[in-house]
Amino acid sequence: MITSLENKEIKKYLKLKKKKYRDLEKLFLVEGEHLIKEAEKSNSLVKVILTEDKELETNKEILYVTHEIMKKLSNLDTPPEMIGVCKINDNNKVGGNIILALDDIQDPGNLGTIIRSAVAFNIKTILLSENTVDLYNPKVLRSTQGLLFYTNVIRCDLEKELKKLKEEQYSIYVTNVEEGKEINKMNVAEKLVLVMGNEGNGVSSNIKSLKDENIYIKTNNLVESLNVGVATSILLYELDSKVGSSDE
Fold first, then answer.
1. What pLDDT score does 244 carry?
2. Is 92 part of any domain?
3. 103 with 210, same domain?
């Protein structure tokens, strides 16, 4: 059992609380049994860290640590009894008839909600702009409830990637309340990218310039706008029912 915070391996995992070290090591931490099990199912789990009095059925290497060390490793007010060390997904393959693109989403809870909805409506690829909140932020991870392991999330130069997808005959759909077509009354392309914008500023102008269609969700006059997580969920439901999102 490891009892010292000066242990070389523990010091390495403590650094994973910071994005730059997660990017450097290509590793991140998940907390609690549910996230660990989901990570193991998807072959993302590398190692398990347990408190000295806890057991877990796993075929991965286990490190036993003191409660004090677990508390330091955790981002929660009430630390868990187990933490998983996971490898960052390096699959950059873009696929599916419907692709979701997120342009500078900032709130971790929104990103987590969007990922859960994307999985619910069969989205195989999610593109994140370079300024979108970090996928491996602990709040994002908790908010996904483990579903980030069931879709391919790719951070990229979004403008460049959308231009490439247009060349591959994908239509770019951007939300626009003032000029958009009502989503539930329109026919949609067989291959499309749905772009959702920043919570405060919407879709950036350089991305808007690539659009093929403006779309919106009709609401009553009491509601000026919907939270981006809610709006994304509704749009994905509508698009999935019209197109489906199986691979070509």
1. 63
2. no
3. yes
